[in-house]
Amino acid sequence: METTTLETNVQTKTADFLPLLGTDYIELYVGNAKQAAHYYKTAFGFQSLAYAGPETGVRDRASYVLVQDKIRLILTSSIKSDHPVAQHHKKHGDGVKVLALWVEDAYDAYEQTMKRGAKSYMEPQTLTDEHGEVRMSGIHTFGETVHVFVERKNYKGTFMPGYVEWKSHYNPKPTGLRYVDHCVGNVGWNQMNPWVKFYEDVLGFKNILSFDDKDISTEYSALMSKVMSNGNGYVKFPINEPAEGKKKSQVEEYLDFYESEGVQHIAVATNNIIETVTELKNRGVEFLKIPQNYYETVLDRVGKIDEDIKPLSELGILIDKDDEGYLLQIFSKPVQDRPTLFFEIIQRKGAQSFGKGNFKALFESLEREQELRGNL
Ligand code: FE2
Fold it and tell me: What separation in Å is there between the alpha carbon of 373 and the centre of ligand 1?
């Protein structure tokens, strides 16, 4: 029952019409950006970078920009109820609004995607200040999520025009998070393939990996997933849809509580998952628990690894392998009260896949959490 396909070379011979340099930032709309920023600094080790709000002339919202190595998070909340950010928060709770993509040419990115069928979110615009200019544009994707294209080659400032540098006296140490490895979208029943086609047709992505519901025993909360990657592999969006199983799909639980399609998890890379997760746990980040019997057989499955199994089992870190190497990964519990957005911490040691060998243990763990919430 081998249903996984992996194309290791996703480069095409034709020119990439949407060259991406990486993830520029991820913006969350939250209920209380000031407090959320404190959490992401304290718990995850993000650093204060920039701020926009009433004190800087922005009358209707506050945005805190945090950074850790190559990862930039923006936390935004509105300060009045009749504001689109407030409406978004009322419906979805805290969640990802913007997956911003770093491009060479934001005007061209808009033109290329619009002529291929994108729906406009932000017409191309140029923002300027004394540090130069940032050009931006944006299109809609699944749910109320959007992609903003950011071109910053002529900008030397802290973040972008409209923001001031945020100097804080409170600067908890980083936890070793390095870059965004992938961001996963949850879409509705029978919506995976239409969104796969959207990423293929409109953004020029390729489907590099697929999991169908047979990959996940129907005993467990089933889902189907296809991993979409841009040409250079810097940006990867797995797309999940629920599948029929004996129990309610974890994707369905997400859709019920986010009240639409949206971003399920953000996977961030580290060079030392044992150190990073030890630190995150000490700072209060909660992770899914994996039964100890997982560790009795895991090395038979994945072979020799560099790390000691003891700290991995104590922390609940999962191990998987593919033809190119192995990976270590762990999943946080949802980072807000709704069972929606969570984080994955991943360390790749050659493997370019997504941990299919861990689905069973992982989904059993997710189901225990779903059951505790009364949603299974
Ligand atoms: Fe993931």
Answer: 22
Distance 333 CA to ligand 1 centre (A): 13
Residues 184 and 161 in one domain: no
- For strands 318-322 and 95-103, give the pairing: unpaired
For residue 191, report the distance from its CA to the centre of ligand 1, in Å.
Answer: 19
pLDDT tens digits for range 211-251: 887 776 556 778 899 999 999 999 999 999 998 887 888 99
Q: pTM of the predicted model, to two decimals?
A: 0.94
| Overall domain count for the chain | 2
45 within domain boundaries? yes
Whether residue 152 is found in the same domain as residue 186: no
**Does 159 share its domain with 275?**
no
- The residue from 137, 165, 193 where one domain ends is 165
Q: Rounded to the nearest whole angstrom, what is the distance from the C-alpha of residue 342 to the centroid of ligand 1? A: 10
